[in-house]
């Protein structure tokens, strides 16, 4: 009988449960995908030279579990808000509290466990699809990654089973301890907003100062190190809460007291709706802003490492292609690259020295990387080494030596004029240095020529010539692929949790808003105006944490200046992707909320 009542209750609110069910499926799918990486040490160690990457993914998995727990709590409150009136009715009809508790337990655990199973299966498909997408579109070098992981599946099932077991016990206990009248009217009492203006101003000042101090600590982590991270975390969380609790209340009060704004269309009603449960919204918006920053930050840094690879390769290797003994190279293949820069230096090699014509370097100086206090210069600036400088400066000669093959690097470099060069009794060869318009689009052809030239001139491994840009690019790509992969997964996971928490928090109070919207419709308010009011109200709740979260990210990227040449490069790409996905959740929430409060009887 209990199973039948539970299934009937779910069937009666099928549309609402589909929202909850889909959110839980997505949560478990994301959790499985990330756990499949965190539990695969062979994948992690083979895609990064940093041994700490395993610890980083373990920490990320724990963090994702905490966020998932918070998400389940909000989803769980949504479930209880939908069903508590039904439970109250059962109690009024004489149902015993023990039976109600069993029914609640069955519903909560059944919905959660079924969603977890389906989500885990969906996670396998998503993991395979995302892996293929990243490898093909982002040119990642991912190895030892399998979409199916028995260990990840077991961890996901056990974690969510325990989570819903605890939630089911909590739900059953909480509902049965409440009085029937309390269940019927629990969420219909508005929160009173009585705060002194001076206290609101003080909160705003403290909040802004806390944020500023946190941003300052993040801007110079090389100086503050771990203490800076801890202090920044505390001050930014505190500042976020204080800014929301003071600014939102102040802004709403000002808007409601301004007749030109408040009396226009349904603005006063919208402001009142936002003020109705502002205490709950303040906590939720603060958490949403932090989750927004975590999600956008993870996606931005992950894609930022991808953007860093060609920049770092270019800063270390001035030339796209180095051809030693270039007289043996297929000129047709080189011409097909459409070089923007192509210069050749003559060489003659004896048993103890390599000779160059000094005038050739005076006419076309050799390019070399520029180094500053942060490492290699990232602006594409190169020093120019003339023949006169190379002849006098042994350190400058080391830059030229880097363009030679391994067998030549132990020999003395000598610069002579054209006449003396011609008199040397040795075979003349050439060193050809090339730049192209677009390295990444020409990558395949450049790699083929570089490998062929390296194989023809040395018995050393191909990676030995680190000045060859394709090999530099491959090295950095191998170093950062794991971070890109982690950033993408974490960004999507946190976005899902963030938007779903926000959506469930808004929808959990929708049933109590039906009466207010029904009254407005009865007095003749047009449906178009009501929908406009809904879009504004929900838009504020999505926009406020989004704006503050983006500000957090813009300042937070300063932390990565020690690891990345330019963490702000191509910032519009991750921001654009994230805002588009966030907007989809906003539109979905508006549609679901409108269907609940404007539903025709």
Structure classification: alpha+beta
Biggest sheet architecture: 5 strands, mixed
Mean pLDDT: 76
Task: Provide the helix percentage.
Answer: over 70%
Describe the oligomeric state of these chains in a short phrase: single chain
Count of DSSP H/I helices: 22
C-alpha termini separation: 30 Å
Protein name: ABC3 transporter permease C-terminal domain-containing protein
Membrane topology: Multi-pass membrane protein
Keywords: Cell membrane, Membrane, Transmembrane, Transmembrane helix, Transport
GO biological process, one term: transmembrane transport
Q: How would you summarize this macromolecular structure in one to three sentences?
A:
The chain is an alpha+beta fold. The chain has helices spanning 2-12, 14-38, 41-46, 53-92, 97-138, 150-176, 180-185, 197-219, 221-257, 259-262, 267-276, 278-316, 331-335, 358-363, 387-392, 394-401, 418-423, 443-457, 469-507, 510-522, 527-556, 572-597; strands at residues 321-324, 341-349, 353-357, 366-369, 371-372, 375-376, 382-385, 412-416, 428-435.
Q: If you had to describe this structure to a student in words, what would you say it looks like?
A:
There is one protein chain. The protein is α+β, with helices and mostly antiparallel strands and 601 residues long. The chain folds into 3 domains: 1-186, no CATH class; 277-315 and 468-601, no CATH class; 321-467, no CATH class. 71% of the residues lie in helices and 7% in strands. The protein contains 22 helices and 9 strands. The protein has helices at 2-12, 14-38, 41-46, 53-92, 97-138, 150-176, 180-185, 197-219, 221-257, 259-262, 267-276, 278-316, 331-335, 358-363, 387-392, 394-401, 418-423, 443-457, 469-507, 510-522, 527-556, 572-597, and strands at 321-324, 341-349, 353-357, 366-369, 371-372, 375-376, 382-385, 412-416, 428-435. The chain has a 5-stranded mixed β-sheet with strand order 1-9-2-3-8. A hairpin with a 2-residue loop joins β5 and β6 (375-376). The chain is elongated, with a radius of gyration of 32 Å. 39% of the residues are buried.
């Amino acid at each position: 009988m209990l199973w039948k009542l539970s299934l009937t209750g779910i069937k009666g609110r099928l549309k609402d449960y589909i929202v909850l069910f889909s959110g839980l499926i997505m949560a478990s799918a994301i959790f499985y995908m990330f756990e499949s990486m965190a539990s695969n040490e062979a994948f992690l160690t083979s895609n990064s030279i940093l041994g700490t990457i395993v610890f980083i993914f373990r920490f990320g998995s724990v963090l994702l579990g905490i966020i998932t727990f918070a998400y389940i709590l909000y989803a769980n409150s949504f479930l209880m808000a939908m069903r508590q009136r039904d439970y109250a009715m059962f109690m009024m009809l004489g149902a015993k509290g023990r039976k109600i508790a069993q029914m609640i337990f069955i519903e909560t655990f059944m919905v959660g466990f079924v969603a977890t199973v389906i989500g885990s299966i969906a996670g396998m498909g998503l993991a395979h699809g995302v892996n293929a997408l990243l490898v093909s579109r982002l040119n990642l070098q991912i190895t030892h990654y399998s979409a199916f992981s028995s260990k990840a599946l077991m961890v996901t099932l056990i974690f969510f089973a325990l989570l819903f077991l605890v939630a089911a016990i909590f739900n059953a206990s909480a509902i049965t301890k409440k009085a029937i009248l309390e269940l019927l009217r629990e969420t219909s009492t508005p929160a009173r907003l009585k705060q002194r203006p001076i206290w609101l101003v003080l909160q705003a000042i403290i909040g802004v100062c806390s944020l500023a101090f946190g941003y300052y600590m993040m801007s110079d982590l090389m100086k503050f190190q771990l203490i800076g991270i801890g202090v920044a975390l505390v001050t930014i969380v505190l500042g976020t809460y204080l800014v929301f609790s003071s600014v939102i209340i102040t802004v709403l009060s000002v808007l409601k007291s301004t007749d030109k704004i408040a009396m226009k269309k349904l603005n006063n009603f919208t402001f009142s709706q936002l003020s109705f449960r502002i205490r709950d919204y303040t906590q939720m918006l603060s958490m949403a802003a932090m989750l927004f920053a975590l999600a956008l930050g993870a996606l931005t840094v992950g894609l930022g490492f991808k953007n860093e690879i060609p920049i770092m390769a270019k800063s270390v290797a001035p030339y796209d292609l180095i051809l030693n003994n270039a007289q043996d190279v297929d000129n047709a293949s080189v011409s097909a690259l459409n070089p923007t820069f192509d210069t050749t230096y003559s060489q003659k090699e004896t048993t103890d020295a390599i000779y160059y014509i000094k005038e050739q370097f005076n006419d076309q100086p050799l390019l070399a990387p520029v180094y500053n206090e942060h490492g290699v210069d990232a602006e594409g600036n190169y020093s120019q080494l003339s023949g006169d400088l190379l002849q006098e400066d042994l350190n400058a000669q080391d830059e030229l030596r880097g363009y030679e093959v391994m067998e030549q690097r132990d020999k003395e470099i000598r610069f002579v004029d054209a006449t003396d060069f011609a008199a040397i009794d040795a075979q003349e060869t050439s060193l050809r240095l090339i730049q192209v318009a677009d390295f990444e689009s020409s990558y395949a052809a450049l790699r083929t020529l570089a490998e062929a030239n390296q194989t023809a001139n040395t018995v050393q491994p191909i990676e030995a010539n680190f000045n060859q840009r394709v090999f530099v690019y491959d090295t950095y790509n191998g170093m950062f692929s794991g971070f890109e992969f982690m950033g993408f997964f974490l960004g999507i996971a946190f976005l899902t949790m963030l938007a779903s928490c926000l959506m469930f928090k808004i929808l959990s109070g929708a049933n109590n808003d039906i009466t207010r919207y029904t009254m407005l419709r009865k007095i003749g308010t047009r449906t178009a105006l009501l929908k406009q009011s809904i879009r504004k109200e929900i838009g504020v709740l999505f926009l406020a944490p989004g704006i503050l979260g983006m500000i957090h990210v813009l300042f937070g990227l300063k932390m990565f200046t020690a690891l990345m040449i330019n963490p702000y490069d191509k910032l519009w790409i991750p921001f654009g992707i994230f805002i588009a996905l966030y907007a989809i959740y906003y539109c979905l929430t508006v549609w679901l909320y409108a269907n609940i409060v404007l539903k025709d009887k």
